[in-house]
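Batch manifest, entry 17 of 40.
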Amino acid sequence: MDRAKGSLIDALAALPWPAGVIFGAGGFAFVRFGLPAFLQGNRFASIFEPIATFMSWFVLGAGLLGATMSWMGQRQRRRLLDTQQGLDSIAALGWRHFEQLVGEAFRRQSYTVEETGLGGADGGIDLILRKEGRRVLVQCKQWRSRQIPVSVVREMYGLLAHHRADEVKIVCVGTYTRDAAQFASGKPIKLIDGEELLRMIRAVQTAPERDARVIEAVEPVAIASMVGAQTACPRCGKAMVERNNRKTGQRFSGCSAFPACRGVR
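Output type: structure tokens
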């Protein structure tokens, strides 16, 4: 059976993982030792002591479980962002993973990100961003085959006033209609289309993924310069060839299947 939404463990899992460890360890010490010491001499102390022992281990377990879930979630989100290579891979995500991807991209821009879970597949307030005292509402639209209409923008504008936020952002894989863009103009509404989202993701991806895209700016050299089979492409296993970086002049090994594969060594 699934845990009830809003449970203690879910709340801890939504925080950075050290918070769960601190909660578990601190709660264990307080319930196991602090309360019995406070009740020492009370006639109910002997009854409360075994209950406190049980509850202390429960609190510790909840804290560590929440910390573990938080760490695994953070790792999954980092990998989700760092492995994106283009709009096709982004469009192939499910709506929940799309929300997580967008949240991680903003998180790497130093936003504090709250995943509300209020949007669902049909939209709504999916993320709440906080930075420098400002609160921003985000809706993630993972529509692949149609433009975002003005009705969606009007809805988010209404939520902006209702929640007294500073700005709203709507993020999609595709584009927006002309009416949607005109309605957003001059208002605290930011429309992020697929191309802008991809640029945002690439700007915050970790160094290994950014280095993989250096192939886009290099000049291939003769295939005879291939290195041995022992240096096969780390992504697809095909042979690597030596290439020159046009900007720096440095030589590196790139996949011979480029541009289908962009593995580098």
